[in-house]
Design a protein that fits this description.
heterodimer, A: alpha/beta, Rossmann fold, 9-stranded mixed β-sheet, two-stranded antiparallel ribbon, 8 helices, B: alpha/beta, 2 domains, 7-stranded parallel β-sheet, 16 strands, about 25% helix, elongated, binds flavin-adenine dinucleotide
């Protein structure tokens, strides 16, 4: 069985500063990492590999050249190999462009039984990629899985929806997106980190797949961003850091003045 | 093509988006899938739908995304809809993506705001994990936009309209995804989205037993207890419908207490509409203090009993 795990390289959100005057995020120099939900997807793939015979796990990512380094973590966690697509023509792709590129990478890899993704990316969280990818590849989709088991060429999953837990079954091949609750991703041991560099890493460009530069990247994007700013909601930031008794008194006095304490 | 097609698997949410679409003067239509069709059409007309497209078929009973998106694609063609407006529930946002790919057009999910300006629909959604708000437009001929539930208020038109009901025959086959069981989550009847005072707890709370202290405090301030994701989803101390955050409920109380909550952006982004934010945390450097109006730096096990005592006087 062959499992493909799609992982997105994202900015380390904790490290993004906001310019106080313009409210713009400062993205230059912010380190990158693999998305959180994708680590759950990878962990699940590796657990399936550990519990069944003849399972291979390939991670796939579309992103900047930094992926050459970032993807090592996935190999250390237990993926057998990685395919990264790095091409300047892909920059500026919206969700449709990104899904088209991913789909073409997966088609080129071939023979894939199960595609695992995160329920959303850590930064944009649009959730469009799983749905779009399933449509392009003409696969059944099971999203928001908080439980997933492989049974004899089919899977059973429990979907976590707002008001219900929905158990479903579907024959493979299929596409599944997972939630954070599905597992606790492992931290790779040092020996695995050292060995990751010896695993196959394939670096592809658009020429290696069947997608053309017209279908992807900035020019093909149909979603246009007009602005992206931190919300300007000035908070008072009056922090009371004295002994508890006087801090509590000051806070209560302030709340009374605000008129929001209705006792 | 100029019309708007409105759909949600939850008809009350369709009423909200119909109210919005018709207030802009766009010809609006609604789609209903499954047997509930007829019973809602009257309401849809009253909220501005000029036409209601009904599709009823056993294959639609499970609301699988492949089937629902195929049905909407068919109806959108029939209705010559320029914009398909969907409620961004978990099912809705998933359907939006697949429908957009079928139509080969752009899509915006989780729109927290939506407005029309000179014929352009401008959506605002959180970006960078909730740190920023991104304003986006779609430049494709047709567009799929999924708007957060309760973004608009449903209001019936002053003068009721009488529209037509159009039955559309389904073309999709049975979904390969078989539904084995649907287990409802317990409904406690508490809706944190409409609460005026929210007392939100996080991992600073050490044990489930300590919830009684939090509840006592919440009762005094007239609040409802809510929580961060680890509390509901990992520790299961509170039902999941009490979870605040971009992947949970968005709240807009007049008073919000974050107690033992770090204020990570994915959680905090859903609180930013609160009028007054109070943080109680023993780490002076916790990010929540940067988004708070008032902060008390201290151990919640000292602060909360002190607050309870002083407020009960
Ligand atoms: C006009 C415009 C320009 C943009 N320009 C850029 C740009 O230059 N660079 C950039 O990085 N982003 C850019 N973006 C954002 C980018 O389009 C989205 O991040 C991307 O489409 C994925 O959407 P998402 O993050 O919402 O993923 P979601 O749909 O929320 O992701 C769900 C899952 O899909 C998988 N997945 C998503 N993306 C990838 C990926 N790239 N590789 C592997 N797996 C993935 C993961 O498993 C993830 O958990 C741009 C967006 C717009 C609208
Ligand atoms: C894409 C994505 C979406 C997410 N969506 C959500 C979401 O919707 N909702 C959500 O909640 N999370 C969400 N998360 C997780 C989020 O990033 C945080 O991890 C989570 O909110 C942290 O919960 P917490 O504040 O309870 O725990 P922690 O971050 O561990 O914070 C606990 C706080 O308690 C304080 N504390 C400890 N002991 C005491 C004491 N005795 N007295 C006072 N203070 C004390 C600590 O100083 C600390 O600040 C999401 C994450 C991602 C990546």
């Amino acid at each position: 069985m062959h499992i493909v795990v799609c992982m997105k390289q994202v900015l380390d959100l904790e490290k993004i500063r906001i310019k106080p005057d313009t409210h713009e995020p400062v993205l230059e120099g912010v380190p990158v990492c693999l998305g959180d939900f994708e680590k759950n997807a990878l962990e699940q793939a590796v657990r399936i590999k550990e519990s069944l015979d003849d399972v291979t796990v390939t991670v796939v990512s579309v992103g900047s050249p930094k992926l050459n380094k970032t993807i090592m973590e996935a190999l250390a966690i237990g993926a057998d190999e990685a395919v990264i697509l790095v091409d300047p023509h892909v920059n500026g792709s919206d969700a449709m462009g990104s899904a088209i590129v991913l789909a073409n990478v997966i088609q080129k890899i071939g023979d894939c039984d199960l595609i695992l993704l995160g329920e959303g990316s850590t930064d944009e969280y649009s959730g469009q990629v799983p749905s779009r990818l399933a449509e392009i590849l003409d696969l059944p989709q099971v999203t928001y899985a908080r439980e997933l088991e492989v049974l004899d060429h089919r899977i059973r999953a429990v979907r976590d929806l707002e008001d219900m837990l929905e158990s479903v079954e579907v024959e493979l091949p299929a596409l599944v997106s997972v939630t954070q609750e599905i597992n606790q991703p492992r931290l790779p041991p040092l020996t695995a980190i050292l060995k990751a560099g010896k695993k196959p890493l394939h670096v592809w460009s658009l020429e290696d797949i069947n997608a053309s530069a017209e279908e992807v990247g900035t020019d093909a994007a149909v979603c246009e961003e007009l602005s992206n700013l931190a919300p300007a909601k000035p908070r008072k930031e009056m922090i009371f850091d004295e002994d508890i008794d006087s801090s509590v008194n000051q806070a209560l006095e302030a709340l009374e003045q605000e008129g929001v304490l209705d006792l | 093509m100029s019309g708007v097609l409105v759909y949600s698997e939850q008809p009350p949410l369709t009423l909200q988006n119909l109210t919005f679409a018709s207030s802009l003067g766009y010809p609006a239509a609604a789609a209903v899938l499954g047997p509930q069709g007829e019973s809602w059409s009257e309401q849809y007309f009253n909220h501005g739908a000029q036409r209601v497209y009904c599709m009823d078929d056993p294959s639609l009973s499970g609301l699988q995304t492949d089937i629902v998106s195929e049905a909407l694609c068919q109806i959108a063609d029939h209705a010559e809809a320029e914009i398909v407006l969907i409620s961004s529930t978990l099912r809705g946002r998933e359907v939006a993506g697949r429908l957009a790919q079928k139509l080969h057009v752009g899509c915006i999910t989780d729109a927290a705001k939506l407005r029309a300006e000179e014929g352009q629909w401008i959506a605002t959604r959180y970006s960078l994990g909730g740190k920023t708000l991104s304003e986006q437009v779609l430049n494709s001929g047709r567009k799929v936009i999924a708007v957060n539930p309760n973004t608009f208020q449903a209001e019936p038109l002053a003068s009721g309209v009488k529209g037509d009901v159009v039955e559309v025959a389904p073309r999709a086959a049975v979904s390969p995804v078989r539904i084995i069981e649907q287990k409802p989550k317990p409904d406690t009847g508490i809706n944190i989205e409409s609460a005026e005072v929210i007392v939100c707890i996080g991992r600073g709370l050490e044990s489930e037993d300590d919830l009684s202290m939090i509840q006592e405090f919440a009762d005094i301030v007239g609040g409802v207890v809510a929580c961060t994701r680890p509390i509901s989803h990992d520790r299961h101390w509170l039902p999941e419908e009490r979870m605040v955050g971009i992947s949970g409920k968005k709240i807009s109380p007049s008073l919000y207490f974050g107690i033992g909550v770090s204020g990570q952006i994915q959680q905090m982004a859903a609180v930013l509409d609160a009028k007054v934010i109070v943080a109680i945390n023993n780490d002076r450097n916790a990010p929540i203090f940067q988004n708070a109006d008032y902060g008390i730096v201290g151990d919640l096990y000292q602060v909360i009993p002190d607050l309870i005592e002083k407020l009960s006087r």
